[in-house]
Design brief:
12 helices, six-stranded mixed beta sheet, single chain, 305 residues, three-stranded antiparallel beta sheet, TIM Barrel, 2 domains
Length: 305
């Protein structure tokens, strides 16, 4: 059985990147569109892992092929830094406790471990986490079950770093599309051979029998997603104006989007700049992991305390 373990919908809220966080969504996917697309592309099971929300997964209702998931933004309270922890097969009560604790990764991770919630670290070699170092990873790795070693939006070299780290730490390997648009849904996945049900899939995952597969990402896939974001934004603005003609915001977003169209080709250079930064971050993290292991060992206890 196959599952794309990392997918976003409108339930992820507003975009997290300035200035888009003021007027754009993190994703325009609906839970039903994720379900339909993933099934069409060969996924046997479906999950939705919105940022710090399970409402997207719950919107699909009780189905034999749906696993409730969430991508938790786990923060260090005294550092501008976080890790993105994927949690699968959780209950609303557990989600409530996760929401209460996620502001302090040092309290959250022991809770997830004690509650026997399946956890994996997403895109560990990406700069979107903040200034992550070997010491921070050393503090978190003991608490998680697996690592996302194929992320459908990250570079192959970043995913290779995650794969090597998983092998060195003895962690399970997972694949997820990290899909914020419909493009990547079901193109990257985790497979558990021999599983015949949702329960057997999770049992196999916990036993370490998961196999990551599918597509990597890069500047071209990000550029494709950006065009889709622009189209979805304009579509939502026009629809909102048609439904509520008295609301000035729909007109503002519609005309703002039209006026902004000429600069879209300029923005297409952003993915290439972004991945230059990502390559550098990946290089620096590798250097920290390999060349300075003693610093990680020295700092990890205080970071985890």
């Amino acid at each position: 059985m196959k599952l794309d373990t990392h997918v976003h919908t409108v339930h992820s809220g507003r975009a997290t990147v300035f200035p888009f966080n003021h007027f754009m969504r993190e994703s325009y996917n609906t839970p039903q569109s994720v379900y339909t697309t993933a099934r069409r592309r060969g996924m046997d099971l479906i999950t939705v892992t919105d940022h710090d929300e399970i409402s997207g997964a719950l919107a699909l209702g009780v189905r034999h092929d749906v696993i409730t998931g969430c991508e938790v933004t786990a923060e260090w309270p005294d550092i501008d830094l976080c890790v993105h922890v994927n949690v699968l097969d959780i209950t609303p009560a557990q989600h409530g406790e996760i929401q209460r604790l996620r502001g302090d990764v040092r309290q959250l991770m022991p809770y997830l471990n004690q509650a026997r919630i399946y956890t994996s670290l997403n895109h560990v070699a990406s700069g979107i986490n903040g200034p992550l170092t070997a010491a921070h990873l050393a503090a978190v790795l003991p608490w998680v079950d697996g690592l996302e070693v194929i992320n459908g939006t990250r570079l192959p070299l970043q995913n290779r770093t995650a794969m090597c780290l998983a092998a060195a730490a003895g962690k399970h390997t997972l694949g997820g599309g990290d899909s914020h648009t419909g493009r990547g849904i079901g193109l990257t996945w985790t497979e558990v051979p021999g599983a015949r049900s949702r329960e057997e899939f999770m049992q196999g995952l916990r036993a370490g029998r998961g196999i990551a597969g599918g597509a990597h990402g890069g500047a071209r896939t990000m550029m494709s997603d950006m065009w889709r974001f622009a189209g979805n934004f304009m579509s939502e603005a026009v629809t909102a104006t048609a439904r509520r003609p008295g609301d000035w915001r729909g007109y503002a977003f519609t005309f703002g989007g039209i006026l902004g169209l000429p600069i879209v080709p300029v923005l297409m250079a952003a993915p290439f700049v972004h991945f230059v930064h990502e390559q550098r971050f990946n290089r620096d993290l590798l250097y920290d992991l390999i060349a300075r292991p003693e610093s990680a060992g020295r700092l990890a206890p205080s970071l985890a305390a």
